[in-house]
Amino acid sequence: MGGFGIGSGTLVWVAIGAGALIFSLCCCTCIRRLKRKRSKHTNLIHGVLLSKEFRNGTGPKKFSFKELSKATTKFNDKRKLGQGGFGAVYRGYLKDLGIDVAVKRVSKASRQGVKEYASEVKIISRLRHKNLVKLIGWCHERSELILVYEFMANGSLDSHLFKGKSLLTWDVRFKIVQGLASALIYLHEEGDHCVLHRDIKASNIMLDSSFNAKLGDFGLARLVDHAKGSQTTILAGTFGYMAPECLRSTKATKESDVYSFGVVMLEIACGRRSIEAKYEDSSQSLPSTRVSLVDWVWDLYGKQRLLDAADEQLHMGFDGKQMECLLMVGLWCVNPNPNLRPSINQANLVLNFEAPSPNLLDRMPIP
């Protein structure tokens, strides 16, 4: 047959052209979305930095990238204090102020990094309490997001409890719990808004040169009205410290913060992680199961052997009344039923022996 047929070569070029057009359209769409996302993030950060605290100069100080690079010797790995999911923390020295600082450089690869950065600056800049890590300054330039905190000479609580940095005496441990309780009372009850921290854990509790506890890392924190006292969000926190209801409803509340506080109390008293490997016998090289610290302590309480939960490394070097009180309040705070947990004020009264110990069931309640 003659005529008007299209050759195979022409079809190939038409297909290539169509493919190129589709590819170009996809690229343009992706670029537009990226620009919108960047614009949204930039507006979010600028909104925070133009807030009342920053305009009045009462908030954290703005640093240049050059200043912070110099302070950390160009972010030298030898100055790295730690590495988290949202970036690395470096030790720095600000010559003009004459102080050591901890410099948190948000990773450019972190999807949540910008939100964490904005949340941290927005919330912690308005907080003033001796048991909260102080935010000294910030930097937002050259696509860099950097936060500058006061330097904590003794690092994080978990480095002492679980990583062998030093053996904390009982007096120091009890003081850490009291300091953390004081910080939570301030966050939950004493400000214009209730602050839900949402990630209370041993690695977020820092210790200064005198081993005073200071709660840090407010990247997941949320502000809520006192009357409401809760907020439904995406699931956030750390497994082992999260209240059981958060796994079901993703609702953050004062009660879920209190649960995390309870877990930390048990870790401090027992010297064990919230979730720990269990070995059937000493010959095994691999753990057979994972055990919950909460379950273990509650089981000992039911057997009337509560003080057996005390950290063996203390070699009985503790005040028995304080240890029992700390373990009891810890179990009270981790009750699976959030309605049966104490407020942070109630827990603090018992810790200071200004109220009687709670009445607990012999067995951990079923959620």
UniProtKB/TrEMBL annotation:
InterPro entries: Kinase-like_dom_sf, L-type_Lectin-RKs, Prot_kinase_dom, Protein_kinase_ATP_BS, Ser/Thr_kinase_AS. CDD domains: STKc_IRAK (cd14066). The keyword DNA-binding does not apply. Keywords: ATP-binding, Kinase, Membrane, Nucleotide-binding, Serine/threonine-protein kinase, Transferase, Transmembrane, Transmembrane helix. The chain crosses the membrane at residues 12-31. PROSITE patterns: PROTEIN_KINASE_ATP, PROTEIN_KINASE_DOM, PROTEIN_KINASE_ST. Residues 75-360 form the Protein kinase domain. The keyword Transcription does not apply. ATP binds at K104. It holds the Pfam family Pkinase. Signal peptide: none annotated. Belongs to the protein kinase superfamily. This is Protein kinase domain-containing protein.
